[in-house]
Write a structure and sequence with these properties.
Strand order of the largest sheet: 1-2
Largest sheet: 2 strands, antiparallel
Helix content: over 70%
Strand content: under 5%
Radius of gyration: 35 Å
């Protein structure tokens, strides 16, 4: 807090501001400072308010040791000066007797006799104040359940009494009743009791998050896995990183461990690592640590005890080490509670959780399903799916020669050989074979660099790839293998050309590729003594350079040179019997036809190539060729055939290493095809699979772009919690948190998340995220249009929250950015919506502000008209006139509203066959008639208007649009 409040008004303002903060250390420290500041005032009332805020901060900040101390001061003030406490403050005071009872239960150092003494104090105080005792019996039951004795009797004494104003909310009492049945082993009855809370009909600050965390396993045991999954996603988001809900977090970790989602459990544990040190409540610690131990036990049992795990601050942890530390601490806590209570209840409950077997082998919880192998350190390269390490030659010379033989053929199994050799060469004490057939170590190191360079190029890391190829060429020269050096330098030229110019600058990229081709031709002509397979590779590089030039430029005149180079390659490879280069040339030719716009020719080429591959091989070219034909068929609008090709391509690709056919792209293409076929859920699965494959091979930007598309699609499908869970997982990635990923891509992920939060009716969180994005995007001088859009959406959310001052500021930011990069439709929509919200919420008092928003919208519409801009949705001018009518109607200015609405109808014109235009016109007629007939009490002209509109719409076949008008007309006639 910058400066302490000097007046009572300043103190109250500071208390209000602190009340808006989330619970945690910042809010608690501020509450402590404000309570200290309140001591300076002679009046006791400010101190009462400050102490109430402080106790709340301690209670929900998981600091139970301090809450009773603050309450003791409040109780003393009440006893000494009861007149200071009005009815509301008196209610708050008596309510908090329950908070103290709960706090004392959480502290094993407090004797059981003291807990019972406090309950006696509560009962006596309630009786003296003439209050019902149901809340007291509720606390007595909770103590009995905590201790593990006499729970049935205590439950009946509480549950059979009528509720009072000081009873816990219905959601909290529902949870306690359900937990009683759960402890008795009756899952079905517990779930039936919980239903109103789980369905969202009853809620409070802690509910339904608390109930959800307990209901997850009963739902699984009773066969409701899908509902458990949905509740896990929503429930976890409500409690994550919250010290006062650490027990709930622990139960979500346990749920992950028992459903085959151990990797997600470790991810959630990392997200909640601060709870190890922030939770001051021993009872909450026990619940959290037991859930953590269930997870860590499962991970270790599956053989991943060496994985890193997020744990206590000050050191790094493995799963095994953290599990041992957690077990020690949790065992001690359980023993302390049992010693205090004189039972074994907590040790028994903890043992039961730890001994639970998995309830499902695998339950897909999120769109980003990962196994523990996915979070383990990546191996240098993937081995072939259908081959094992035993297939590799055991002899080192044989392994080297086999790798080179396979590499000459372009065979995908070469990857496993190079991966094994890379490991052997890097090992301490490596001894290179003294074998003339193998050659010197420099030659092998060059081979390994060339393989690494190829993989970097596959990931579009062209600059790194070029550098590696150049280093490989130097080593080939050193090893007296000049022909290999030539091929490596040729590869370096192509990679450097792709890295030379920024993506999107087609002309510059084309020039770089033209230069690369010229240099490749010269390199080829000046290189004597090449083996046929090496010469074929140079021809392939030449053709590829020109093919890329055609692709980046889009200039079809570049097609003929590509065909000429392809013909050279095809003729040479055919004469020398190099099967891989023959099919490579045919694939290039088919792709060139497609790039040149001749899709039928491209389809015929791929058909012929597939026939050849099936007859003569190489078989590993089949998946890639099927993928190309699928893209061609999609271009020919045969999505069903494309889907079949891609499905078959993925089936065949599974027989080879994943890099052979770029399975990430195949899944991406299949997602696009599914969208054409109207199968968005299937598309979503393929998008997430594509992204995860890109992540595994290190193409993180591509992966995050694909995941961004998946998140937007899941939001469009109404899968809000799936969307949020996916984005939360991505935004928690280390490189994202460290700011290493492209900031605009991260902003897009956060923007989608903010929209999902809004769709999920979490207005507070959505507004906070939008406001943060608006502040960040204000510095995007190169992209003011995006800032305009973000600021506009932020303004609308602030308006929904009733914060029209901040909404005005955000709208002004959007208008300023719009002046640099116009976003006519988005700004008009935003300003009209803000006007509607302010008039609707504030009535006549909000009219001036609403009209100011509409004036800005009018200026935007004028600019759009001058720029001859055509809106994609509603036309701006009639939409603006309609909003003038609606805003004035909300403010009670009905004559002005009627004039504006009639103007809107004039601008709209008569409806036609278009359903959207007819719907907009019908709504305008409806509101006009409502203002005229109901508020201005002129039913006759309103009915004439409505009858004519209904007749017009019915004639055009717009019966659905006519329905509301017919209903309004019937109402006016009934009231006449």
């Amino acid at each position: 807090m910058p400066t302490a409040p000097q007046t009572i008004d300043e103190l109250y303002q500071a208390l209000q501001e602190n009340d808006r903060r989330p619970y945690g250390r910042t809010r608690t420290v501020t509450a402590e400072e404000l309570a200290e500041a309140a001591e300076q005032f002679a009046e006791p009332l400010p101190l009462v308010h400050a102490l109430l805020e402080l106790q709340e901060a301690y209670t929900y900040g998981s600091e139970p040791r301090k809450s009773p101390v603050v309450f003791a001061r409040l109780l003393t003030l009440f006893d000494e000066q009861p007149d200071v406490f009005d009815e509301r403050l008196r209610h708050s005071l008596f309510w908090r007797f329950k908070w103290v009872a709960n706090a004392l239960r959480q502290l094993p150092e407090i004797p059981l006799a003291s807990l019972r003494q406090w309950l006696t104090e509560m009962r006596d105080r309630y009786e003296k104040a003439g209050l019902g005792l149901q809340p007291y019996y509720g606390q007595a039951y909770q103590l009995a359940a905590h201790v593990g004795e006499d729970t049935t009797r205590a439950y009946e004494l509480w549950a059979g009494r009528a509720r009072t104003r000081l009873s816990d909310c219905e959601a909290c009492e529902t949870c306690e009743r359900a937990l009683y049945h759960l402890a008795a082993g009756d899952d079905e009855r517990a779930l039936a009791t919980w239903e109103p809370v789980l369905a969202g009909k009853e809620s409070c600050r802690e509910e339904p998050a608390r109930s959800v965390s307990y209901a997850l396993l009963p739902l699984l045991r009773t066969g409701h896995a899908d509902r458990a999954r949905a509740l896990h996603l929503a429930g976890y988001r409500a409690c994550r990183r919250d010290p006062s809900m650490s027990g709930e977090v622990g139960r979500h970790l346990e749920f992950c461990a028992l459903t085959g989602n151990e990797a997600r459990g470790l991810e959630l544990l990392a997200e909640n690592r601060t709870l190890f040190d922030e939770v001051d409540s021993p009872l909450d610690q026990l619940g959290f640590l037991t859930g953590v131990e269930v997870l860590l036990n499962r991970v270790e049992l599956l053989g991943h005890g060496d994985l890193p795990a997020a744990g206590y601050a000050g050191r790094t942890w493995t799963v095994t080490a953290l599990r041992a530390e957690v077990r020690r601490r949790a065992d001690d806590l359980a023993a302390r509670f049992d010693a205090r209570n004189g039972t074994t209840a907590h040790t028994d409950r903890r043992r039961a959780r730890l001994e639970r077997a998995p309830l499902l082998d695998a339950l897909e919880l999120t769109l980003r399903t990962r196994a523990l192998d996915d979070v383990a350190p990546a191996a240098p390269a993937a081995a072939p799916a259908t081959r094992t390490a035993e297939d590799l030659p055991a002899s080192l010379p044989e392994l080297i020669l086999r790798a080179r033989e396979l590499d000459e053929q372009g065979h995908p199994d070469a990857a496993a050989c190079w991966a094994r050799l890379r490991t052997l060469v890097a090992a301490p004490g490596y001894a290179h074979p003294d074998d003339p057939a193998v050659g010197p170590l420099a030659r092998l190191r060059a081979d390994l660099l060339a393989d690494e360079a190829s993989r970097e190029g596959d990931k579009d890391r062209f600059e790194a790839s070029a550098a590696l190829y150049e280093e490989a060429a130097r080593l080939y020269d050193e090893a007296a293998a000049p022909e290999h050096a030539v091929v490596a330098r040729g590869c370096a030229l192509l990679q450097a050309a792709q890295a030379a110019e920024p993506a999107g600058d087609g002309e510059a990229q084309a020039a770089a590729l033209t230069d690369a081709h010229t240099r490749l031709v010269r390199l080829h002509e000046e290189a004597p003594g090449l083996a046929p397979y090496q010469e074929a590779r140079l021809l392939r590089l030449r053709a590829t350079a020109l093919g890329l030039r055609l692709q980046v430029s889009g200039d079809k005149e570049y097609g003929a040179p590509v065909f000429a180079e392809v013909d050279l390659l095809l003729d040479f490879a055919t004469r020398h019997g190099i099967a891989g280069q023959v099919s490579g040339a045919l694939l290039l030719r088919a792709g060139t036809h497609a790039l040149a716009g001749d899709l039928p020719a491209a389809a015929a080429e791929t058909d012929a190539l597939l026939d050849r591959l099936k007859a003569h091989g190489p078989a590993w070219h089949l998946p890639r060729t099927l993928g190309l034909r699928a893209r061609i068929r999609l271009g020919l609008r045969d999505a069903q055939a494309a889907h079949a090709d891609l499905t078959e391509s993925l089936r065949l690709a599974a027989e080879w290493p994943s890099d052979t056919a770029d399975t990430a792209r195949l899944h991406g293409d299949l997602a696009q095809t599914c969208m054409y076929l109207g199968r968005p859920d299937e598309a979503l699965r393929h998008l997430t699979r594509s992204a995860e494959l890109d992540l595994r091979r290190g193409s993180r930007t591509d992966a995050f772009c694909t995941y961004s598309n998946a998140a937007r699609l899941s939001l469009d499908l109404g899968r809000v919690e799936d969307c949020i869970a996916l984005l939360d997982s991505l935004l928690a990635e280390p490189d994202v948190a460290a700011g290493e990923l492209d900031d605009r891509l991260v902003a897009q992920l956060r923007l989608t998340r903010a929209r999902a939060l809004h769709a999920g009716e979490d207005l507070k969180a959505a507004t906070a995220e939008f406001a943060a994005l608006a502040a960040e995007s204000a510095g995007w001088d190169d992209d003011p249009g995006s800032h305009a859009m973000i600021a506009a959406e932020t303004a609308v959310l602030l308006g929904e929250s009733g914060e029209f001052g901040r909404a005005r500021e955000a709208a002004d930011q959007a208008l300023a950015a719009h002046a640099k990069a116009p976003r006519y439709e988005q700004l008009s929509n935003c300003l009209r919506e803000l006007a509607r919200l302010q008039a609707q919420q504030q009535g006549s008092e909000g009219l001036p502000g609403a009209l100011a928003f509409l004036a800005d919208a009018g200026r935007v519409a004028d600019e759009a008209r001058a720029a001859e801009y055509e809106a994609r949705g509603r036309s701006l001018d009639p939409a603006l006139a309609y909003e003038h009518g609606r805003v004035n109607a909300y403010a009670g200015e009905y004559e002005t509203a009627l004039t504006a609405l009639e103007k809107a109808l004039t601008l709209l014109g008569e409806p036609g066959p278009d359903a959207d235009q007819a719907g907009e016109w019908a709504e305008c007629v409806r509101l006009t008639a409502a203002v005229e007939g109901i508020y201005l009490e002129r039913p006759a002209p309103a009915l004439t208007r409505l009858d004519a509109a209904v007749s017009r719409l019915t004639t055009l076949g717009h019966t659905e649009e006519a329905g509301p008008l017919t209903s309004l007309a019937a109402r006016l006639r009934d009231e006449a």
